[in-house]
Amino acid sequence: MGIISFITSCVRHFLSAENIQHLSAEEFEKQIIATNGEQLIDVCYPREFAKHHIQGARNINFRSPDFRAQIDKLDRNKPILLYCAHGVRSKLTANMCRKMGFKSIYDLDSGLVGWLKKGKATKP
């Protein structure tokens, strides 16, 4: 019985994570275009966002006391595109969004650092 529970747990985890896609800078840029950047969310700290961010992004501070409440206001049925400086906070946010019922979640795999390394534009 123990092995069956373990396998079932692994399968559930695999299937539940399928709505999160970790994308390269090029793939992420294509998703921004495809979705008109409607729910492009930068989860960096405000000082990082002020320094540079992807055009059209909305900043929701990862450390804000009402971070989850701000994410909760977004449309779960529309794709959400997430990024941060290096990709750690956005991955944590992607998992949170999955648990909250978001249908399509796109995460910039290498974060803004990878975006800039690929020569992609940002706004100050």
How are the elements arranged and paired?
Elements: H1 2-16, E1 20-23, H2 25-34, E2 40-42, H3 46-51, E3 58-59, H4 67-72, E4 80-83, H5 88-100, E5 105-108, H6 111-117
Parallel strand pairs: 1-5, 2-3, 2-4, 4-5
Describe the overall structure.
With 124 residues, the chain is an alpha/beta fold. It has one domain: Oxidized Rhodanese, domain 1, CATH 3.40.250.10. It is 46% helix and 14% strand. It has a five-stranded parallel sheet. Helix 3 links the parallel strand 2 and strand 3. The longest helix has 15 residues. It is globular, with a radius of gyration of 15 Å.
Q: Estimate nothing, just give the exact number of structural domains.
A: 1
Q: What are the secondary-structure elements, in order, as H or E?
A: HEHEHEHEHEH
Query: Which architecture name does CATH use?
Result: 3-Layer(aba) Sandwich
Proportion of residues in β-strands? 5-15%
Uncertain segments are: 7-16
Helix content: 40-55%
